[in-house]
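User: My instructor asked us to take a sequence, write out its structure as tokens, and then describe one feature of it. I'm not sure where to start. Here is the sequence I was given:
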Amino acid sequence: MKKKTQRHAIAAWVFKTLVKFFLVLVSLTLLQVAVFKYVNPPFTVNMVWERLRHQWFDAPYVVPAYEWRNLSDISPHLKQAVIAAEDQRFLTHHGFDFQEIKIVLTQAMEGKPPRGASTITMQAARSVFMPATRNFVRKLGEAWYTLFMELIWDKSRILEMYLNTVDWGTGIVGAQAGAHRYFKTTAAGLTRDQAALMAAVLPSPHKWSPVNPTPYVKKRQQRILAYMPNMPLL
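Assistant: Let's start with the prediction itself. The structure tokens for your sequence are:
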């Protein structure tokens, strides 16, 4: 009887501890996301992670170029281009595009090459709050932050955060840095063709270049240009 009582006491303690941990995690996440609804991040978690990797493991490091631009100061062509390229149902889903996920799973079962189903919200969560590691924990964290971002931010803020923090190549963070590095212009000054090229390389910005596009990148650019007139302007 005494052992049974002890087991119940231990189980109750474990349960209470887990509940407290969960509540603390929710509170901290809510605080982070709520703050960034109004405050533009001076850096991202991944910027810190890359610096720490350099210091701890002597990994290659390039000081990132990063200049925040309000959504109104970013070319409308780029806004349409990234939605066309990355998340055409951006305005209609709530962070997770289950229609796209279903397509990806079906293709995977048919043996077709795998492709991502990340939405712009998920990518923004990854860019701002998570290090650039490739593991299950990061995917779980990405989904976790996506829930709160969709709850607290509107779509304009999500797109603004995405365009300012997305990885556009080695040492290139966000639209302003990308526009300057690739086309010697500002995020506001990007043309339709330039914007489509920048969006075309987003799936692999360290492999592809907007200024030296491969035939595949050019093909992606043309497809994006065809979709852009039907994309919303935020």
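For the description part of your assignment, you could build on this observation: The radius of gyration is 20 Å. Try explaining in your own words what that tells you about the chain.
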